[in-house]
Amino acid sequence: MASWRLPQGRAVGSVRWLPSSAAAWDRMLVSTLFDPETGKPSLELNALGSKDSTEGRPWLDLRGEWELPGRVSALATAALQGENFLAVAGSIEGSVTVVPVDAVQVTTSELLDKEPLVLSGLHEASVCAVDVLDDSGDCLAVGEDGKISVVKISESELLPKRVHDSHGHISFSAAHWASSMEFVTAGVGAPLQWWDLRKPGGPVSQCRLKWDGSSPGFVHSLDVHPSRKHLCVVGGSGGSIFAWDLRWQRDAVKLAGVSASKSAIVESEVWEVKYDHASTISSSSDSGKVPPVMFCSEDGVLATIEGGKRNVTELLAEPCAINSFDVDCENGKDIVCGLEHESILFLKRRI
C-alpha cells in the first residue's frame, strides 16, 4: 500500500469521492473544512491528479469552493441522471446545503460558480446525518431534535417533507437509504430502526444494540450493503461495531468492542463504518456470513474486520483521529481519509 498526506491548513471534517466513471487519478473529491481563526466553514471540490508528477505523488486541483452557512456535521454525494452530481451538507445549526456539480464544467480550468441551494431551519438542532439517492437526488436527513426529513431536490428549489417527529423523546445520529422507499436510522434513546415510506406511522422493524456497561452507547455511523439491503452495520462508542440482518429478527451481532473479540484493536469512538467495496462481489454469494466492514476511529486506526472470523486487518495507524473516510466504489482500491491534523490522506491499496 502507498499513502500520501495532503495538508489543508484547516480542520478537515468529512471527505467523499464524487461518483464518476473517470480513471482514479481524474477523480473528484469533496471535502468540508473549517477555519478556526475566522470561524468560516466551507466545502471544496478538488480533482485528484498525479499523471504529470515524476514521483507519482497526488495533488489536489481546486475546482470549486463554497462558504457554508454553518459548520458541517454531515456530508453525502450522489450521481444524477445526465452525468451531473450533488454534494449535500448538513450543519450543526440545522440547515441543509446542496451544491450542484455540472459534469462538463468541472472538467474545465474555470472554478465552478453556481450558487448552492440552502434550506435553513430544516431541523431545530444539528443535522447529524444525510444520505442522497443516486438518480433521483432525494435527500434523507435526521437530526438531534428527533426528526426525520426527506428533501426533494430540483434545479432551483428544495422541497422538504417531514417523515417522523419523535417530539424530543429520542435523538437521531445516523441514517442511510436502503432503497428508494426504505432507510435505516440509529440514535440516542432509540434502537436500530428500519423504515418504509409506504408504511407511515413508525418503523417497520427495529433491533436494540447491546452495549457494554450500564449506560447506552452512541452510534456515530451506519451503512447498508449495496446489493443486500437487508444487511446493515453500525459503529459507535467504545470501539463497538454491530451488524444486523433484517431477516433474523433478533439482536445485532457484535463484530468489535470490549467484549466482542480478543482481536479487537480499537477501544475509542468508531467515527465511520462502510461495507468494504473491494469484497462486495466476493462476499455477496455467501449469504451466511457478515461481509467485510471497513472503519475508522478516534485513535487513528483505519481497518477492516471480517464478520465471519472477526479478523481485523489494519490499513493505517495515524497519530491523530481519522474523522472520516471514503472508498472508491468502482475499484475498491482508492481510499481517502480526513485527518484531525488538518490533512487529507490518500491511500492506494493492493487487492
Automatic annotation (TrEMBL):
Regions that span the bilayer: none
Location(s), subcellular: Nucleus
Keyword Cytoplasm (UniProt): no
GO cellular component assignments: nuclear pore outer ring
Chief location of this protein within or outside the cell: nucleus
Superkingdom, natural source: Eukaryota
InterPro entries: WD40/YVTN_repeat-like_dom_sf, WD40_repeat_dom_sf
UniProt keywords, alphabetically: Nucleus, Repeat, WD repeat
UniProt keyword annotation of Nucleus present: yes
PANTHER family: NUCLEOPORIN NUP43
Protein name in UniProt: Nucleoporin Nup43
Species: Selaginella moellendorffii (Spikemoss)
